[in-house]
Structure formats: C-alpha cells, structure tokens
Amino acid sequence: MWQVRVALRPGARGPAVAELRWRLAKLGYGEPGGGSGFDEALAAAVRAFQAAAGLVPDGIVGPATWGRLYALTGAPSHSLRWDPAGALAAPGPGCRGRSLPAPSPWAPRAAEPPAVRIEVSVTQRRLVLHTPSGAVAFPAAVGRPEAPTPTGRFAVAELVPHPGPPLGTRWIRLEPDLCSIHGTDEPWLVGGAVTPGCVCLYNKDAEFVYHRIAPGTPVDIRA
Length: 223
What we know:
- The protein is α/β, with parallel strands linked by helices and 223 residues long.
- The chain contains four helices and twelve strands.
C-alpha cells in the first residue's frame, strides 16, 4: 500500500488522489469522480472525515488518515484498477491491479535513438538523462536487496509536482507501474541500495530531470 507513505495536500494530483477520492466517496464524503486533483471540495471532505474519525481535521492526508480510511473501506489498492479518466473502479475479470496503458514500444532503430531518454544503472546506482544538449549523470538510490529495482524498458506515465513526503519535490511515475523515479526528504540515502524498489534522486536532480522530460519519455533500467 504505497499510498500510506504519500502525505497528500491540496494541489496534489495523481493516482493516490484518485484513490483518496474513491475511498471517501465510499464512506459518503463526496463523489468518486468529482475531479482529478486535490481541490478545495476534496479538502473539505477530508476535514469532515477526519473530524468524524477523531483525527486532527487539518485536511492533510498522512499515515493516520490513510490508516483509518483503509480500516473502514478495506480492499487494498491492488484490488482496484486505475481508470485513465481519473477515477478508481472495481477490478474487472482477471484484473490483478490498476489497469495502466501498456508501455510504449519505444525501442528505436540503432541509428535513431530518442532525442530525450533516461537510462538507469542499478549496479552503478546512477541515472543518466540524455537530451539533444548531451548526457547528464546523477547519483541515485536503488532498491534494497529484498526489494530490488526492477529492470527493463519503461516509459514516463505521469509527472507529479510536490507529491509530499517521502517523495521529495518531484515524482516521475513510470509504466508499467512497477517502480518510479522521485526526489527524497532523506538525501543521505542517495547512493545506497535502500529503497523499496524505486529510483531516488536528490531533489535538485529530480527537478532537473522532471523539467526536461514528458509523458512517454523512454526509461531503460539495467542491472
């Protein structure tokens, strides 16, 4: 349940916000498809739920609020599927998780590499951003031995600014939804094999990468 580690505040966007909206609606606080972002209406629903649940009604969805929501609504997130329209729905036949678009078949001909792409070396704990201006390398934290960073070809699915702790100042969600690239509130971890599988950068580096890519940018993670 990765959402429990994401503290949501007004202005946030992405799948965690959609799941929050769905769970609140299940309890009678708002509509499940009321919007795609953490707007004032959703903040009011959060505060109302927090007050009724005996929590501090600050409108910030941290671990305590997530925990209470899961306790009351059950169904961990892997039993739901992600609707590209911005809502969560019950699983369809054979659904094992959120239904995300298949990764773009971006592998180019050798003579024509993508103008912008990301390469990650797990063993070197390094992320390299390739752009028309050249390549820039950044130190990275990767998955710990019991939760290794998955390797393979991915694509950027979503760019989320200010996602909240522990994701630092920028979150780059990938598809397939097996890991992500993000900043950190614990910069001393960068360079280690310490994450639950994601690729973690210093916030300034995550911001540099974030502002030079777009949804669909290819990401190649190698051992």
